[in-house]
Specification:
Strand 1 and strand 2 form a beta hairpin. The protein contains one helix and four strands. The chain has a four-stranded antiparallel β-sheet, with no helix packed on it. It is of the alpha+beta class.
Length: 100
């Protein structure tokens, strides 16, 4: 059934990875070079070996990433389910669990 479903656009792009493991911050950011916009449902796969940064250190490195664009249907589904999942995150209570 080729041709019935839209194909997903896929391309490689260089990226910069910024990793920090210090008392002030624990983070790992990926910035796609060339200001590539990522939309709901898009996938980004960073290539290369896993990176370990010891406590107290920072690391910045260059890698190659593959961006796979979502189809219109996937983008719509991601937005819809994202809103539903956000509602689940907001279900909380301030009661202690005891009967008043």
């Amino acid at each position: 059934m080729p041709g019935w479903f839209p194909t997903r656009e896929r391309f490689d792009v260089p990226c910069t990875i910024d990793i920090e493991n210090t008392f002030e911050s624990l983070h790992a950011y990926v910035r796609l070079d060339g200001d590539i916009a990522i939309h709901p449902g898009d996938e980004v796969l960073v290539h290369g070996e896993p990176v370990r940064v010891p406590y107290g250190e920072k690391l910045k490195l260059q890698r190659l990433a593959t961006v796979t664009r979502a189809t219109a249907l996937e983008r719509w589904w991601t937005k819809l389910t994202g809103r539903l999942e956000m509602g689940e995150l907001c279900e909380f209570s301030f009661s202690s669990g005891r009967k008043l």
